[in-house]
Amino acid sequence: MDPFNEIKSHLIDGKLIIKREDGYVEEESFTFYAPASETESKLLPSFAPIELLSFLKLHNGADLYVSPKYSGGTHLFSVKEILHYSKEWECPDNFLPIGIGLDGLRIVCQCYLEKVENFIWVGEFIDFEDDYHNLNMNYKTWLERYVAAQGDPFWEK
């Protein structure tokens, strides 16, 4: 699964002209990091979603929709960062941090091994007891919609 194939095919020196929902147009940059090794992938818990593992085997992290003027954008974590932020953000056992979005929003994946389900949570500070930040969509759907929305926080609409 690589929802970025279309974007990558249009990049020039890692940049692409993006038209935002509010009408402004800007050249934004994208960086896709080298794939995670098999050894690195095995460091993740067994409940990590298959789609997340597939992404990490293609790109062990990425910086998306970064404005040269305003910075911002979204950073999708590498395996090492997932493990680091799991501890730093004090994520419960079935949650994996997957990135940091605009304005420092935390992006976390709630995983269920027995149900083969996962849900994306997004928020500045996530209270893992209250599902207010649960977007009620899985990793694959969230990533596809994020790309379709050209990096805009579609869940806020």
From TrEMBL:
This is SMI1/KNR4 family protein. The lineage of its organism: Bacteria, Bacillati, Bacillota, Bacilli, Bacillales. InterPro entries: Knr4/Smi1-like_sf. It comes from the Bacteria.
